[in-house]
Amino acid sequence: MTSAPSSLPESPAGWRPAARALGRALAGRVLGLAAGLHQTWRRSLQVRVVTITLVVSSLLVGGFAYLIANKITDILVENAKADTLLRLRSGSDYSAKQFYLYSQPQEAQLQDTIEGTVNYLAGGDPQQTSGVVVAITADSYTGIIETRTSPATDVRPLVSRELRAAVAEGKVAHQIRTGRLGGERTKYLVYGSPVPTRFGQLELYYLVPLSRQDATAADARATVLATGLALVLLLGLLAALVTRLVVTPVRVAARTAQRLSAGLLDQRMEVNGEDDLALLAASFNQMATNLQRQILRLEEMSRLQRRFTSDVSHELRTPLTTVRMAADLIFAERDEFDPAVARSAELLQAELDRFEELLTDLLEISRFDAGFAMLDSEPTDLVPVVHRVADRLAGLAERAGVAIELDVPSTPVIAEVDPRRVERVLRNLVGNAVEHGEAKPVLITLGMDRTAVAITVRDHGVGLRPGEEKLVFNRFWRADPSRARQTGGTGLGLSISLEDARLHGGWLEAWGAPGQGAQFRLTLPARAGDRLTTSPLRLVPADAALPFGGPRAGEVLAIGPAGGGALAIGPGPAADDGDRAEVRS
Fold it and tell me: What are the subcellular locations of this protein (predicted)?
């Protein structure tokens, strides 16, 4: 007869992988359970309050039960000691009278008298079934006088050497010992007393079982613990109910606040009663109503402001066209005018150009504010875009004494972008760098990785002071209000560039340091709609020499508000320049 093959490993070594796998599974489940409990503890106020109440009340009730049980036990033992001591003294006096007639331990009737005395003392116990054992010994006359006990049993295991020595010295002593006297293991109160005679000293011992006292103490402990457990459960239930009464309105308020923050401005809490929680709900509703009214008012004001800006910009187009025609005619004939009049015609033409650019930027800003700006993405090679921007601003750079340097790949850099908007962003960044370049070179760098493309514009001009990295993208902001614009900008270029970057789902960031110039970085996803995580180029230039105590090269000193960012300081990788430490609001 053949047996079925076993699926268990035959050797102990075969168990080890299975044991390790089982251990890992158990460890994973334990860690998962611990993580779940920790998360519940952190998230639930009710769980924390109920748990703390249960733990504290359990400690208090446990300590109280321990003290009560010990006190009851001590009282029962003391009563047993007092009763046993009283009987011991009476028995010692009776025994002394019985042995008074004997002057020698060898007398024939002494042993019978000892046995009769022991039986009398044991029979004199009103509770004959209590298990009390009476014994008379004579340690000084071993071999002459035998030990007698009633009932007959061996008491030597329960009478210790120390107790015998104390009684032999004429003292009344006692001990609590645990042992067997022909039955179950029991705790005994052992009392010993000397019995004086004419020929010497005998020892009388009472062994009183403490079973009844132990049972009474155990019943008392059980009663106290049961009462304490019921009290703890009652306190836990009470804490849960009270906490629920408080936590439920708070949870409702939290959910209502989340709905309000999501734009559901008509959400309100239910008000029940007139207590403090009802007052909280009423105050919350009043706050929500005021916020709703204020938000609607601000939205209406913003809408009117955007519409006003758009309408004014459109309305100014007609008179601007008329003025432009007249100005072009005057500018064309300026050579025939007096030099002062000719200069005025040139200034008029320049300011009209700037005014027209301002109107164009205002219209673009109004479209961004109204949410009407649309992105027309298409696969575009950014290398020609960078060259085209550099060529168009070459004349401006030559007048400012600034050299524009390019660091672009020799191969095409293709990305799905809106070429018109990207070119506008680059024109604004390069024009801003030329204006603040202090006749020092401006470097344009183009880089790409698998997910993103980036363009940096680096100048070596006056730079930016700490905190200005957040302000440089604000509308009409100037680092130095007293400084006149050299390029005739409108003050909206960087704001529009920021909106163009956001429309692409990209980042526009700024770094600067006083006396070291500034660098702007435009990062766009290589595929339209992708989410950016890193940038191919470094925000902080490698040649930046930051002051002592500041971040080292390779760290992000400041992030512009590309995506609602604010000033941030954080480490950037030394080799991989995909550093990103933007704080989003």
Answer: Cell membrane
